[in-house]
Design brief:
Number of helices: 14
Helix content: 40-55%
Protein name: Purine catabolism regulatory protein
Organism: Clostridium coskatii
Radius of gyration: 28 Å
Number of domains: 3
Distance between the termini: 45 Å
Pfam family, one: GGDEF_2
Family: Belongs to the CdaR family.
CATH architecture of the largest domain: 2-Layer Sandwich
Largest sheet: 5 strands, mixed
Strand content: 5-15%
Length: about 400
């Protein structure tokens, strides 16, 4: 479970800390706890921190405090703890109202409580959680990425991490859309900031899973998070949509695509169903989709293409059936391939195809006749249509059309 502004209130030793504002943001994850007294925190934070202040540099000036809070919110910090005492006697109402609107948690702590003790308690909890995360991550990387034998020793290790042989586990991969382009566009080259962004995405995924009372294993590789969730496929659909929506809501212009594989119980099958989710995500990229949820079971005939050892035979089949039409379009700046795809999608109905493409029915009729001439085929023949539809899917899969 991630360390959040909500669950730190349950840590032993923090009984005197209370929330005074921003309860809507209590599920923000905390990366670390800092005591900072300077008004400008820019050089000291990376995002995700919980800040502690006594107010010695701010005093009882509500306008300065409000400006300070606006600044740390803009830097994606998780919350603020005010040491109530000689410098700040109470949290001003204007500050409370602003934090409530922004969903930014503000806590109060009596001045007699030593900040060093409180920050140590929180940082120990974060450190313990991170150590557990790293251990689980390393184990799962072995299971799903390494060519190893799943023996009794591996099963015993899995059980220690919470694996139950009688339960169903479903694969779910969360991939940050165009992340390399995003950090380049934002001119982000600090590895720690990049890591913090990824950690925030992972924290949101884990938050949604925790909220749904789901146990899970996970591994991280590049810009993707690989989860084996204790759930069946039917429930995982809803959870995946919740993850996608929550990330869009909390992370602004960062979106994710989610691939879902099948379910399994045996640890040795984890790699297989993870591969299914990878294939689903790969197809979403071929289709040019992002901010989406795609299931392996919904890939249809595309599932067969992944298991063909080489693309040569598929390319040959495409060339035999559709290459002439593709070349004709390229030479004449025409759209006969697009017309053919729409015509077949509309079950060879001229009227519906015309509506779909916003052109006259007679124009569609002329184009279909021209297509039949170029391909030397009869589009009224079901077997011919089956072959062409298969080749269209091959063309999409191989990015030929």
């Amino acid at each position: 479970m991630i360390v959040t502004c909500r669950n730190i209130l349950n840590l032993p030793g923090l009984e005197k800390m209370k929330v005074v504002a921003g309860k809507g943001g209590l599920d923000r994850g905390i990366t670390w706890a800092h005591v900072i007294e300077v008004p400008d925190v820019g050089d000291f934070v990376k995002g995700g921190e919980l800040l502690f202040i006594t107010g010695i540099a701010i005093g009882n000036n509500s306008e300065v405090l409000l400006k300070f809070i606006k600044d740390i919110i803009s830097r994606n910090l998780s919350g603020l703890v005010i040491n109530i005492g000689p410098y700040i006697k109470e949290t001003p109402k204007g500050v409370i109202d602003f934090a409530n609107t922004a969903g930014f948690p503000i806590f109060e702590l009596p001045f007699e409580v030593k900040l060093i003790d409180v920050t140590q308690i929180i940082c120990r909890a974060i450190f313990a959680r991170n150590a557990h995360k790293e251990s689980v991550n390393n184990f799962m990387r072995e299971v799903i990425f390494e060519d190893i034998n799943i023996d009794e020793e591996m099963l015993d290790r899995a059980v220690l991490y919470g694996y139950k042989r009688e339960k169903k586990y479903c694969s779910l991969i969360v991939d940050i859309d165009n992340f390399s382009s995003y950090i380049k566009k934002k001119n982000i080259d600090d590895e720690e900031i990049i890591s913090n962004i990824k950690n925030r995405v992972q924290d949101i995924v884990e938050y949604v899973l925790d909220e749904n009372n789901k146990k899970y294993f996970y591994a991280v590789q590049s810009d993707a998070f690989y989860f084996m969730v204790c759930s069946n496929v039917e429930n995982i659909d809803r959870i995946a949509e919740s993850i996608r929506n929550e990330i869009s809501k909390r992370m602004g212009d960062i979106t994710v695509s989610i691939g879902i594989g099948d379910e399994c119980s045996d640890l040795k099958d984890f790699k297989c169903v993870i591969l299914e989710a990878i294939k689903a995500l790969k197809l979403s990229k071929i289709f040019g989709k992002k901010n989406c949820v795609i299931k392996y079971k919904g890939l249809g005939i595309f599932r067969l293409f992944f298991d063909i050892e080489t693309n040569a035979e598929m390319k040959k089949l495409f060339d035999e059936n559709l290459l002439k039409l593709k070349i004709y379009d390229e030479k004449n700046s025409s759209v006969l391939v697009k017309t053919l795809i729409a015509y077949l999608k509309e079950n060879r109905n001229l009227g519906k195809t015309a509506e779909k493409l916003y052109i006259h029915r007679n124009t569609i009729k002329y184009r279909i006749n021209r297509i039949e001439e170029i391909l030397n085929c009869d589009l009224k023949d079901d077997e011919t249509v089956f072959n062409i539809m298969l080749c269209i899917k091959i063309g999409v899969f191989l990015r030929l059309i």
